Amino acid sequence: MKILVIEDDETTGQFIARGLREEGHSVDLVTDGRAGLIEATGGTHDVMIVDRMLPEIDGLTLIKTLRAAGNRTPALFLTSLGSVEDRIGGLNAGGDDYLVKPFAFGELSARVAALARRPPAQEQDTVLKAGGLEMDLIARKVTRDGVTIDLLPREFAILEHLLRRKGRVQTRTMLLEAIWDISFDPMTNVVETHISRLRAKVDKPFDTELIKTVRGAGYRIDA
Amino acid sequence: MKARLTSLLRSMPLRLALALVLLFTLVSLISLTATYLVTARSFDQALRNDLTQRMAGFRAAPNALALAQLVEAEARETDPERMVLSYFAPNLRHYGNAALARDSEGYHVVSLSQDSPRLTGQYLALTAALHGGQLTIARSRSEIAALRRGFLNILVLSLVPTVLVALSGGVLLARRSARNVQAVAHTLDKLTTGDLKARVGAVPAWSDDLAEIAGRIDQMAEAQESSVAAIKQVSSDIAHDLKTPIQRVAVHLDELSRHAELTGAAAEDLDRAQAEIDRIVSVFGSLLQIAQIESGTPRSRFRPVDLGALVAICVDLYEPSAAETGHVLAADLAPDVPAVPGDRDLLLQLLANLVENALRHTPPGSRITVALKLSGPAVRLAVSDSGPGIPEAERENVLRRLYRLDRSRGTPGSGLGLSLVSVVARLHGAEMRLEDNAPGLRVVLTFPDVVGPGSS
Ligand SMILES: Nc1ncnc2c1ncn2[C@@H]1O[C@H](COP(=O)(O)OP(=O)(O)OP(=O)(O)O)[C@@H](O)[C@H]1O
Ligand SMILES: [Mg+2]
């Protein structure tokens, strides 16, 4: 993927760029809003990562300007700590996602991957499959290797979410946002307990592990 | 209306006016009554003297005939309404301008002239047996009655206008002063709820003492605003200066963990460092968030929020964690609780903080209930548990930033959860109370504002 990073803090900018390059993306890194706007108007990037506070032109104005000009490149806002306004302001301005600094690289990587492939594949499918698992979305039935698995509605929703994003990591915060529409970080390991309940039904009775834990990032069902 | 009346009655100027009116009325009553009594008594005395003197004059007559002629002569000149003269002579004839007639109601003076056959009113009479007959002279007391009427008139004419003027003046003043006091109170309210820009701005027409108070309040607010601004500046400078380095440390640690192949103690150190930086970030984030909400998150972002839906989300989210630690977490939702105007994300976080507290600060096996119901016109949200509770003396303290009970030293957390709950509650105009759930803690939030009937 071709990714544009507009970030004025050098350490953070290099960190993002290096990480993304290691994952095989090509990265353009600029450090102010004006340069960012010029780069972005080319319209050749798959995803933009934009710091909200930028010299010259701030991130919000930048995205608003691009959107007004018809540029639809998915954008992820980076916001600094403790700003209540940021999420809603950013999303209203035309941002597609946001992330509060500091963040683990795994979080950024997972979100960038999610942005690039919006909307999720298989939207039309009525049956989702992975390994020996089949989820019938209409009958709301799940089987694995032909064995029926009884899931509670919430467990069903989590599994469906992971299945629809097969091969991509879903972080704890992404799951919180998608399943419960929660934008803060609960202190206790609530997501882990939900996943382990799900695993107890989906994985434990079988030989292979379907829901993988990705260290320092989140969970994934392999394609 | 009734409340307005009582508050008016309790206002200072009206009370003063009422007291003055009462005093004035009392003094007038006493002095007028005394004057009247004295005057009436001396009038009476004068009447008596007059009667005795006249009687003495009549006694001077040598015989009955002379007396009869004297009476007759004087009677002709005298109006019986003023004075009655009556002589029953020994020859059984009657002389005078009126006679005493007797009927079932007692004695009446009956005039001898045609036009006023019967006289009424009080008379003071003196009777004497003279020359074998009976002479009665009586003077009307109508003048005293007139005097009384006069005094009553004076009383009414002087008191009624005074009372009316004083009362309406009092009400007017009371209204005005109530308005002024209201202005001061309104400003104080704003100041205490965090609007440090509020000022009374005294009007020149105000009374000196009130204007003085208003001036002092404004001065105080000025000083407070500037010192708060200074503190805010310092802390936001600190926050800003620290944000970037913290972020960089986190970045370096993250890179280290992804690239360096650390093993054993080094890997553990790195994990610990990352956990610490996470904690710093979270405390820092919470402090900044609390400060920002306190400094006034725009209420314009408020939308109708269905608290019942938020409770459902929370219970659903925490139920597995609760089960894992042996807690029983349940929702108790009354039907048809209306929505409240608010910030959904903040309210959800408020609820999550309370549920997390109940999970974290109570022993396994405790029961946690999140209840939502209507309480009068307000919406009441309560999170209760059956744990150790918070001692009464500590209930104020735990709302302070970074404050934790001694017994909680061993559990994770930083003492910011309830601080956030309290500022979010204040932002929503909700009253927050920590109560004894006997046993356990019950946190009750009462939202006075609601938006229409809600979905259940
Ligand atoms: N439900 C409860 N039962 C007993 N004690 C409580 C309860 N809730 C809070 N407390 C006490 O009040 C203190 C302050 O609570 P608060 O939520 O502000 O901080 P915390 O839970 O310790 O940390 P944080 O919420 O920041 O992670 C706690 O440390 C605990 O001692
Ligand atoms: Mg807490």
Automatic annotation (TrEMBL), chain A:
A GO molecular function assigned to this protein is: transcription cis-regulatory region binding
Which ranges of the sequence are annotated as binding DNA? 125-223
Which UniProt keywords are given for this protein, alphabetically ordered?
DNA-binding, Phosphoprotein, Transcription, Transcription regulation, Two-component regulatory system
Q: What's a single GO CC term here?
A: protein-DNA complex
Name of a matching Pfam family: Trans_reg_C
- The domain of life is Bacteria
Q: Which InterPro entries match?
A: CheY-like_superfamily, OmpR/PhoB-type_DNA-bd, Sig_transdc_resp-reg_C-effctor, Sig_transdc_resp-reg_receiver, WalR-like, WH-like_DNA-bd_sf
- Membrane-crossing ranges are none
Q: Which positions does the record annotate as the modified residue 4-aspartylphosphate?
A: 51
**Protein's GO biological process:** regulation of DNA-templated transcription
Domain Response regulatory positions: 2-116
What residue stretches are annotated with the OmpR/PhoB-type domain?
Answer: 125-223
> What's the name of the protein?
Response regulator transcription factor
TrEMBL record, chain B:
Instruction: Write down the Gene3D superfamilies for this protein, in alphabetical order.
Output: 1.10.287.130, 6.10.340.10, Histidine kinase-like ATPase, C-terminal domain
Record-linked InterPro entries: HAMP_dom (IPR003660), HATPase_C_sf (IPR036890), HATPase_dom (IPR003594), His_kinase_dom (IPR005467), HisK_dim/P_dom (IPR003661), HisK_dim/P_sf (IPR036097), Sig_transdc_His_kin-like_C (IPR004358), TCS_sensor_his_kinase (IPR050428)
Q: What residues does the HAMP domain cover?
A: 175-229
One GO CC term on file: plasma membrane
Q: Which residues form the signal peptide?
A: none
Where the record annotates domain Histidine kinase, the positions are 237-451
Its principal location?
A: membrane
Record keywords = Kinase, Membrane, Phosphoprotein, Transferase, Transmembrane, Transmembrane helix, Two-component regulatory system
Recorded protein name is histidine kinase
Question: What are the top taxonomic ranks of the organism?
Answer: Bacteria, Pseudomonadati, Pseudomonadota, Alphaproteobacteria, Rhodobacterales
